[in-house]
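Can you please make up a whole protein chain along with its backbone structure tokens because I've never seen that pairing?
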Amino acid sequence: MVNMKNKSTVAAIVMSLTVSYYCNEIKAGDPGRSGQAGASELLIDPWAGTSGFADANTASVQGLEAQFLNVAGTAQLTHTEVILASTDYLVGSGIHISEAGFCQPLGEGSIGFSIMSMSLGNINVTTYDYPDGGLGYFTPQLINIGASYARHFSDYIYGGVNIKLIDEAISNVHAFGAAVDAGIQYVAGKDKNIHFGISLKNVGPAMSYSGDGLGFATPIPQNNPNQNTQTAEQRSQSFELPSLVNIGAAYDFYLAKDSGTKSVHRLTVAANFTSNSFTQDQEMLGVQYAYKKFFSIETGYMYQSGNWSALSTNPTDGGRINAFTGFCAGATLQYPFGKKHSIIGVSYAYRATNPYQGCNTIQVKLDL
């Protein structure tokens, strides 16, 4: 009979081989494929804790926020966690993101559920006959729903899967799809302060749009003075999902201990490499300081080719192809209450952009 340690080793090997094969198949980091994927909202981190860290903590992230970055981290949760988050995305653009979710320990693992809603504001309705609008407004709505399960295979290896439903719609056009995330975290060291993590994200079938908005009236010639019309529907081109691979590592420095057991001051250094299938690769570096469970502050930097260049519309000329310039920072305040040592916390994160005035995320977390 295969013991748990061997099962853990096999799981880690299978995941590593899968990631290696996938990286070769998707030609990761090819700038010539930029713009060929859709559902780009899947790349937006809606949580404050990981956003302030520049998403560098793939290897060490825990709790509900791990569902976005590396779902394996949800398995390390020991209590019920509920989070509500709100993001003013690209301040000045009118884009707003709302996120809510919970994570619950269950047996040897945990289950999680989250929903993200992205509003793009009101947009003028224009037609061929009315190119300047005047016909009212429409409001695009993007919704992602995630349901995850993760478990610990041993005291040092955690793994999980997250299934996502993707819904994009305006009043008369709609697209629906599904994707899967998978991840593994490995913890080592006497104090479990060495972390490694791998996650595979946004793997799923191509999506396409359909609906009345793709229909048009066409005349049918007849042998009479009156022409009849018939409604025809155009077929939209399908699009791929923005698949990627995260590979990360982190190390915890315990600077002081209380009564020789509990950590008072912790400094975590984390790094992550993201291999994107439809855009340039990214490297992230982040640092976090935490005082017990009461306070933490983090900062990070996300590097992508062209970060220090002017914004470019040509993905092959080496310029910057997105609004983010790399710098991120955040902070968390937490207060324990009740006999069961419940905790309520407030977090804030900022991500620098050019143009626009950055991204602001604020969230409230309740640990029960």
About this structure: The longest helix spans residues 4-26. Residues 323 and 353 are 5 Å apart (CA to CA). The helical segments are 4-26, 48-52, 66-69. The chain has one domain: 4-367.
